[in-house]
Predict the 3D structure of the following.
Amino acid sequence: MRLLLVEDDLELSRRLSDRLRQSGFAVDLVTNAADAIEWPDLDQFAAIILDLGLPDGDGMQVIKRWRDLGVKVPVIILTARGGWEDKVEGLNRGADDFVVKPVRFEELLARLHALIRRFSGQADDLLNAGDVTIDIAAKSVKQGNKQITLSRQEFRLLHLFVRRAGHILPQSDILENLYALDEEREQNTIEVHVSRLRRKIGKEKITTIRGMGYRFEK
């Protein structure tokens, strides 16, 4: 899953991006309000983490602009502002959660998972399609009673397939969901990951729809 992190503190953004990537996310980083508002594919993100104190504007205006444009992606405000007035304003502007710095990464991650679950209509961290079960928080996969070991990108790919089981996923959509914009992308890497995933969970699970993409069979 891809996240957008809007944070102008370069050291904090580096540390937070690293921890989020280690937790299985692809992270795009923005350091100012203008770029955040004009980001080209906001609806491709699983969630957005937004700082309020940006060098060229207030994050409150950013989230209001996103909502005015129809952007529905869940947003967590992460800020040093801790007053109840800021929390009320942030939630009223369209934020889905409000976290005050400093915060333990584990709490932020738990809130992020909870937010993504709510947005996707999940009741817990378990995601199922057929005999495949993904524990999102634990980053583990079972097929029936068998534990499946996956690489980080294989897990991201399977998570995407299971979330959209039964639907055709074009390679372009898969690339957008698996990689941050500044990461190297090649179409044939998707074919490689799909091939490896098929070997681990069964080739019949992922159907190639020629000229259109792939479909995960329920």
Q: What stands out?
A: The helical segments are 10-22, 33-38, 59-68, 84-93, 105-120, 152-163, 171-178, 187-201. The chain has a mean pLDDT of 89. The first helix runs from residue 10 to 22. Residues 126-216 form a domain with the Arc Repressor Mutant, subunit A fold (CATH 1.10.10.10).
